[in-house]
Amino acid sequence: LSMLFVDENAIADLNERFLGEEGPTDVLAFPMDEHISEGGRSPDSGGTGPGVNPEPMTEAPMMLGDVVLCPAVARRNAEGASRTYEDEVALLVVHGILHLLGMDHADADEATAMQRRERELLGRFHKP
């Protein structure tokens, strides 16, 4: 997993080049493997992931991909949602990682499932 923090011009360029959308966005995710959830640990499997397993690793670690985040857009989002900047960045990091693990929000059911997982993970790992 790599995390890249960029300015609005850089994320707008990526947004247009890869998603065909104009303007800056808050977070983009670029998976290394389009079929990560088929061959690897799915986001809802309940597994703890690499680094938490007491057993020695027998395989190479899974390469998830890249999460690109724009702090300036995150700051505006936080103000608009009455959240702290730190809470917004935590949400965007989790959101991006869930995309890398195969989750999406293209329809209402997917969005609900993704938001539920975000809340669960933030409640477990983010202590404001």
Brief descriptors of the model:
mainly alpha
Question: Segments where pLDDT lies below 50 for 5+ residues?
Answer: 36-53
For the terminal residues, how far apart are their CA atoms? 23 Å
Encode the helix/strand succession as letters.
EHEHEHHH
Q: Count the strands?
A: 3
Which strand order spans the largest sheet, edge to edge or round the barrel? Answer: 1-3-2
What would CATH call the architecture?
A: 3-Layer(aba) Sandwich
Question: What is the CATH C-level name?
Answer: Alpha Beta
Q: Number of DSSP helices?
A: 5
Helix content: 40-55%
Which structural category do the helix and sheet elements fall into? Answer: mainly alpha
What is the count of distinct domains? 1
The dominant shape is globular
Gist of the model:
The chain is mainly alpha-helical and 128 residues long. The protein is 47% helix and 11% strand.
Q: What can you tell me about this protein's structure?
A:
This protein has 128 residues and is mainly alpha-helical. The protein has one domain (2-33, 63-125): Metalloproteases ("zincins"), catalytic domain (Collagenase (Catalytic Domain)). The chain contains 5 helices and 3 strands. It has helices at 8-19, 36-39, 71-80, 85-100, 108-125; strands spanning 2-5, 27-31, 65-69. A 3-stranded mixed β-sheet has the order 1-3-2, with helices on both faces. Helix 3 crosses helix 4 (85-100). It starts with a strand and ends with a helix. The relative contact order is 0.18. Residues 36-53 have low confidence and may be disordered.
